[in-house]
């Protein structure tokens, strides 16, 4: 058995699967490997030559992919891809690559095929070229350098195939929804049910109740077009959702026990990771089960696809809150309207809502750290804007300023939700108290600040018309892919064409606002806000001052206090109207700040940051 040189893998797989890969050849394995490398310096790597393996530098005949299913070459490439731990990356003529999705025949090679009933469907039979060719692919990058034409990554085009791998009467499909809500989930559920029913004649469709844990702890819900007829007009999820509770073995046991062979999983990055684990387990057990992921996230942070469903609806709904904030702010002196929007790690909603509105003076997102004090800081900017126009609107994404708040409080936020996502400190409340206190104390200028937190309102509404159409296409892409035997894929649009993307590819990276991109530049030019470039120096200074301040406060409270721990000095969210004097706020699992009696110093540190003290905190001569 020859030991061959490792092929260099693209960055994505390097990260997922280790630095390289070795390939065995020998009598038992006639087929070999089609792996491309993409590192910008040239193209080399493993190549397929029928019956023999060739590597970098050696004689190579390029694999002519995409490969038509069922051909001799396809069989070779398929078994080659099996030897690559299920990763299917093929090189086409000219060096372009196809990141292909798994297929049932990868582990069940002799499955029979059937003619697609859509051929005889009166609604669809009139469509010219209705069926998508197995050789159709979609380019990830449509803008390329003239020297690179014909290269780059591609994905399989989504859509109905002429041959399918399930007899309609044999299909037992289930749908599950996981993670946070998002406008449009019900539309996707409805369209999967109606699509399977009317296009393919499937009659056994079940809902899994309450997210992943519903697989093994609840009864299924029967789904028919009649039952789901109206659900797209409502927000939320008809099937209920949850975080946590992903137990791969128990879920696949339940899939087997119920004879389910198509699993449609609607959810965000965490859900898709779970879907991939389910797919892997089904494959390991040799089951004829397809797992299809439908990406859902209001944060729009799922990579590769153009945009997630519900995002447009969310941006539109956010306008209502921004408008209200603007009206409130401009109707009083020194008025500030502060709106918090969702966006745990990605500030897309905040960025798009700001750009759409044009009433926003400052947009804070997780990707851009900010600081409060000193030249170029937030307070200086707020003061300047209030002087210029008498009022201002601030939009903040919930994930913004997390490090700053933690630094200011001297605490580390270790709280997590049931899925393992970090719980966020409430940046909206923190900004309110910090700004108010600061302006009062330092400038003797009371602020008229109105805080609006529409986060749950934004994600709980039904999807708008364009999101409804998008959800319909997504659902149809998923069912066509499943009927065609593809699995372990996420359906979604790439450059406006729906594709099947390997789930592994989708979850390998997450998407964030690119602040070096023209979109963020547009925002900066529309708000004229500072770019907070001096963040690191500023935070160091602020840290130093806060530490001093805490020490002073501790000494003071030791002297004063007779009852152990005092919340003085931890009073970022200290009781306002109606709160008892010795109360502070604690963050609950649903991310709301609630008052608690001040006897837990740790909780207070995590949830009640000390506002910075600008005049003492910064060396104004700092670079
Ligand atoms: N790495 C992972 N592997 C398997 N399952 C996961 C993983 N991360 C999250 N999950 C499961 O996916 C579901 C939803 O995840 P969550 O992060 O809450 O929402 P979202 O999918 O919207 O990002 C939960 O049931 C959680 O247990
Ligand atoms: O309070 P919940 O339900 O845990 O949701 C909060 C989180 O859910 C989201 O809306 C979406 O998150 P997921 O996509 O991970 O479900 C985030 O913006 C937000 O931080
Ligand atoms: Mg998520």
From TrEMBL:
Cofactor(s), by name: Mg(2+)
Activity control: Allosterically activated by AMP.
Chain residue ranges for the region called Disordered: 544-623
Composition-biased stretches (Basic and acidic residues): 549-558
Presence of keyword Glycoprotein: no
Active site positions, chain numbering: 299 (proton acceptor)
InterPro entries, sorted: ATP_PFK, PFKA, Phosphofructokinase_dom, PKF_sf, PyroP-dep_PFK_TP0108
Any one GO CC term of the record: cytosol
Signal peptide start and end residues: none
Domain Phosphofructokinase, residue spans: 173-480
Site keyed Important for substrate specificity: positions: 270
Compartment(s): Cytoplasm
GO molecular function: 6-phosphofructokinase activity; ATP binding; metal ion binding
Pathway: Carbohydrate degradation; glycolysis; D-glyceraldehyde 3-phosphate and glycerone phosphate from D-glucose: step 3/4
Similarity-based family: Belongs to the phosphofructokinase type A (PFKA) family. PPi-dependent PFK group II subfamily. Atypical ATP-dependent clade 'X' sub-subfamily.
Subunit structure: Homotetramer.
Protein name: ATP-dependent 6-phosphofructokinase
Source species taxonomy: Eukaryota, Viridiplantae, Streptophyta, Embryophyta, Bryophyta
């Amino acid at each position: 058995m020859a030991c061959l040189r490792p092929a260099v893998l693209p960055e994505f797989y390097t990260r997922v699967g280790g630095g390289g890969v070795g390939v065995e050849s020998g009598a038992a394995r006639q087929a070999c490997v089609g792996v491309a490398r993409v590192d910008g310096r040239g193209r080399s790597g493993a190549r397929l030559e029928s019956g023999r393996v060739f590597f970098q530098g050696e004689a190579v005949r390029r694999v002519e992919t995409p490969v038509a299913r069922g051909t001799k070459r396809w069989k070779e490439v398929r078994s080659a891809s099996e030897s690559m731990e299920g990763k299917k990356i093929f090189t086409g003529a000219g060096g372009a690559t196809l990141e292909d999705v798994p297929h049932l025949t990868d582990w069940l090679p002799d499955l029979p095929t059937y003619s697609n009933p859509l051929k005889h469907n009166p609604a669809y039979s009139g469509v010219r070229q209705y069926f998508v060719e197995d050789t159709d692919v979609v380019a990830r990058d449509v803008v390329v350098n003239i020297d690179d034409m014909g290269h780059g990554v591609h994905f399989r085009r989504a859509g109905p195939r002429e041959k399918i791998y399930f007899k309609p009467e044999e299909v037992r499909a289930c749908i599950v929804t996981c993670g946070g809500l998002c406008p449009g989930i019900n539309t996707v559920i409805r369209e999967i049910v109606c699509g399977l029913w009317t296009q393919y004649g499937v009659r056994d469709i079940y809902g899994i109740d309450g997210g992943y844990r519903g697989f093994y702890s609840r009864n299924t819900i029967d789904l028919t077009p009649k039952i789901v007829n109206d659900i797209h007009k409502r927000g939320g999820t008809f099937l209920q959702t949850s975080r946590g509770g992903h137990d791969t073995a128990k879920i696949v046991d339940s899939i087997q026990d119920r004879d389910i062979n198509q699993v449609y999983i609607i959810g965000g990055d965490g859900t898709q990771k779970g879907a991939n684990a389910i797919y892997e387990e089904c494959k390991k057990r040799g089951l004829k089960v397809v797992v299809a992921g439908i990406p859902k996230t209001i944060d729009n942070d799922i990579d590769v696809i153009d945009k997630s469903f519900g995002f447009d609806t969310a941006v539109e709904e956010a306008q209502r809150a921004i408008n209200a904030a603007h009206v409130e702010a401009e109707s009083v002196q020194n008025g500030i309207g502060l709106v918090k929007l969702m966006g745990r790690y990605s500030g897309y909603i905040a960025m798009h809502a700001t750009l759409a509105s044009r009433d926003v003076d400052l947009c804070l997102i997780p990707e851009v750290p900010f600081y409060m004090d000193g030249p170029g800081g937030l307070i200086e900017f707020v003061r300047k804007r209030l002087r210029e126009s008498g009022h201002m609107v601030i939009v903040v994404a919930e994930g913004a300023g997390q490090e700053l708040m933690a630094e200011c409080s001297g605490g580390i936020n270790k709280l997590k939700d049931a899925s393992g996502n970090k719980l966020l400190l409430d940046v909206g409340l923190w900004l309110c108290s910090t700004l108010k206190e600061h302006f009062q104390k330092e400038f003797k200028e009371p602020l008229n600040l109105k805080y609006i937190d529409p986060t749950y309102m934004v994600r709980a509404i039904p999807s708008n018309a364009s999101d409804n159409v998008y959800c319909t296409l997504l659902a149809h892409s998923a069912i066509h892919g499943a009927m065609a035997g593809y699995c372990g894929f996420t359906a979604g649009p790439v450059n406006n064409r729906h594709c099947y993307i390997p789930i592994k590819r989708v979850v390998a990276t997450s998407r964030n606002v690119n602040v070096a991109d023209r979109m963020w530049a547009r925002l900066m030019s529309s708000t004229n806000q500072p770019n907070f470039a001096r963040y690191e120096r500023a935070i160091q200074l602020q840290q130093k001052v806060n530490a001093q301040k805490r020490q002073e406060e501790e000494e003071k409270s030791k002297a004063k206090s007779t009852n152990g721990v005092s919340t003085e000095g931890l009073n970022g969210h200290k009781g306002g109207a109606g709160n008892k004097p010795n109360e502070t706020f604690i963050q609950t699992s649903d991310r709301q700040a609630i008052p608690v009696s001040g006897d837990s110093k740790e909780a207070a540190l995590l949830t009640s940051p000390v506002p910075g003290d600008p005049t003492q905190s910064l060396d104004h001569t700092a670079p």
